[in-house]
Amino acid sequence: MGCTVVAGAFWGDEGKGKIISYLALKDKPSVCVRTGSVNAAHTVHFEGKRYALHMVPAAFVYDKCRLLIGPGANVHVGQFLREVEETGVEGRIGVDEQASIIEPTHSEVDKSNGHLRSLGTTGWGVGPAVQERAKRSARLARDLVELKRFLGDTAEEVNFAIDAGTNVILEGTQGLMLSLYHGSYPYVTSRDTSAAAICSEAGVGPSRVDTVLVVYKAFITRVGAGVLPGELSKEDAARRGWFETAAGTGRERRSAPFDFDLARKVAKIHGATQAAITKLDILYPRCKNATSYDALSEDAKEFIGKVEKTTSIPVTFVGTGPGALDIVDRREIL
Ligand code: IMP
Ligand code: MG
Q: Is 76 a catalytic residue?
């Protein structure tokens, strides 16, 4: 496995949390670095409990994995401390000294500013915090007494783990269509979400990465404003079983069918070498809880084949249910 970057394909909520929790249990990484910020929620179902993680890396399910927050991340201290307690990872989580801080005033601005409201931001304050950082007036993790016991050098630790030949996961948040550079501007988040940017935020150079895993969902969803090609009515979405609410904000997700052209473009920009497709059981209920390729229905196999053909990369993981282990792991095809 080596160093794997996990990146979202479309407008986030593809199920990166589930894929990362599976990789953590299966490949036993020594380190997982989470990038981005508190606006993204990664859902993990583990040992009968559901976690919606805004700060703690999704690989926490493997109890020997060291969990790190990268220098490019923005830390919401209250949420970070709550999740550290909820997941019981106090002794094995670190925050880079140079990660920047989301202040209460940033959240207030995010919730009240007319322009940001019109974009449908999550209201966590990430955009205003990034703005503060770009002005070079932000406080960093090293300036906060509450974070003192967690402080470290993420780039140094993660590169050491790669040098040692251990498995490492770089956990991307959101999806490429929410990228400040590549997404549907201005209806995007306040950072680049590409695989290259995930590496940059963690402090890992591109030559050190072995696998770029792009995570697609079998249909597309989006929260907030902005284009959504092929958008369905809420009734149609509900009829198909695609209607979802956001793990973080509880907002209703808009939905649309899988977009093959967009999938191809996204795979290129991420430089993806493998793909995961989550929630295939929602499209093809006969696939529910399948753990082998042979157990998938013919129409599901056709869908996988079409994704591989359009993107020119192998589909190595197929999600067939919410649990971390509801997955078809096809890495034998590589
Ligand atoms: P912000 O990132 O809170 O500034 O919000 C900007 C846009 O990105 C809004 O449309 C949000 O709904 C969307 N967004 C931000 N984070 C996520 C995420 O984790 N999943 C899905 N949408 C997100
Ligand atoms: Mg999410």
A: no
Answer whether 0.85 is exceeded by the pTM.
Answer: yes
Q: Is 329 a catalytic residue?
A: no
Q: HSE (CB half, 13 Å, CA atoms) of 329?
A: 12
CA distances from 307 to 64, 155, 194, 265, 330 (A): 35, 34, 20, 12, 14
Residue 119 sits in a domain whose CATH number is 3.40.440.10
Q: What is the pLDDT of residues 175-223, one digit of tens each?
A: 999 999 999 999 999 999 999 999 999 999 999 999 999 999 999 999 9
Distance, CA of 118 to CA of 120 (rounded, Å): 5
Specify the ligand 1 atom closest to the Cα of 39: 16
Q: Which domain holds residue 157?
A: 3-329
What's the 116 CA to ligand 1 centre distance in angstroms?
Answer: 11
What span, in angstroms and rounded, lies between the C-alpha atoms of 325 and 62? Answer: 13
The model's pLDDT over 12-31, given as tens digits with 9 standing for 90+, comes to: 999 999 999 999 999 999 99
Taking each continuous run of H as one helix and of E as one strand, the counts in the chain are 11, 17
Strand partners, 276: 215, 317
